[in-house]
Amino acid sequence: MCTYSTEHLMIKGSGKGPNGWFGVKEATVYFDHPVHLGVEHSLNIDFLEPELGPSARVAVELEAGSARRLAEAIIRALDQMPELTGELVRADR
Amino acid sequence: MSDQMLAETVEIKGFGEDSLEAYFARPTGQGPYGSVVVIHHMPGYDEATKEITRKFAFHGYQAICPNLYSREAPGAAPDDAAATVRALGGVPDERLVGDVKGAADYLRSQPASNSKVGVIGYCSGGRQTFLSACSLDDLDAAVVCYGAFIVSDAPPEMPMALKSLLHLTPNASCPILGLFGAEDKFPSPDQVARLDSELEKYSKEHEFHTYEGAGHAFFAVDRPSYRPEAANDGWKQIWTFFGRLLSS
């Protein structure tokens, strides 16, 4: 199925595309059909900068288990540096 | 029958007289030919959908696939365009109907047209096909391939405001062929049965086929969901259905 499910959030970051680095301001996260990965559904993340157009996008498609491990790894990595990340998270918000 | 065809990108007018990119494939003979509007799936105006459009031309139909993401992402790669439109919340129903009308009008204006136009859509395009059949009064046939959220609203956690279309059933203006997978969850067999009975209730001509061993997107030859047995029979049903309703 097309799940239509979409998490959409405003972010502050940078991504690297075929033409080099650019700032990314939005992200969408959804579990739906991949374009490239050979499974029926995958966890897809798009990092976007709409002002630069549709091709200003860094995309990943992950098998569900990989996505969970990645999410857990992100949290672990952030938790390892509470003082630093605390500052950064506050600044980001 | 000749298998010669011409396929190219054209510009058509859609909802609000907006210019849209569209992929147009047709036999090169003089016709007259029936026509088909192909509504692309949520992943966009992609290579697979263009291949489907050419398949109709191979079988003697004028076929056009409007790029429903033309406005938000002109000239973008199909996956980038789909990501952009997804982030913006999807294609509004009213706009979709206007775009399909524009595509159908374009087909009827062709010198080789026999004035008959059908519509077919896959996945999200399946829902949009039902919407078109219930919103436009001059279509001759509609093929719904595993369209979800026709009989129920999308869950509230989904940001796309997809409302049930069931209340539109009395307005269905043309015969409907529905092709579904028994293992699909959206639409589930129960939802398909509900749509079937609603069409029955209003005496709307329709024909549904549900394939065992197939789930969602069983027509998609470039995806793991492809089920050749179901897809081959599905195509057979489509040729019979459109052959009866769109021929001269």
Low-confidence stretches of chain B: none
Helix content of chain A: 25-40%
Mean pLDDT over the full residue set of chain A:
89
Number of DSSP E strands of chain B: 8
Strand order of the largest sheet of chain A: 1-2-3-4
Shape annotation of chain A: globular
The tally of structural domains of chain B comes to 1
Q: Major sheet of chain B: size, sense and barrel closure?
A: 8 strands, mixed
State the domain count of chain A. 1
Low-confidence stretches of chain A: none
Name some characteristics of this structure.
heterodimer; A: 93 residues; alpha+beta; four-stranded antiparallel sheet; 2 helices; 4 strands; 29% helix; B: 248 residues; alpha/beta; Rossmann fold; eight-stranded mixed sheet; 23% strand
What can you see in these coordinates?
In chain A, 29% of the residues lie in helices and 40% in strands. Chain A is α+β, with helices and mostly antiparallel strands and 93 residues long. Chain A has one domain (7-92). A 4-stranded antiparallel beta sheet of chain A has the order 1-2-3-4. Chain A starts with 6 loop residues before the first strand and ends with a helix. The mean pLDDT of chain A is 89. Chain B has 248 residues and is of the alpha/beta class. Chain B has a single domain (5-246), classed as Alpha/Beta hydrolase fold, catalytic domain (Rossmann fold, 3-Layer(aba) Sandwich). Chain B contains 6 helices and 8 strands; from the N terminus they run E-E-E-H-E-H-H-E-H-E-E-H-E-H. Chain B has helices spanning 47-58, 78-88, 93-108, 124-135, 189-201, 228-246, and strands spanning 5-13, 19-27, 33-39, 62-66, 113-122, 141-145, 176-181, 206-211. Chain B has an 8-stranded mixed beta sheet, with helices on both faces. Chain B is globular, with a radius of gyration of 17 Å. The two termini of chain B are 15 Å apart. The chains are: A alpha+beta (93), B alpha/beta (248).
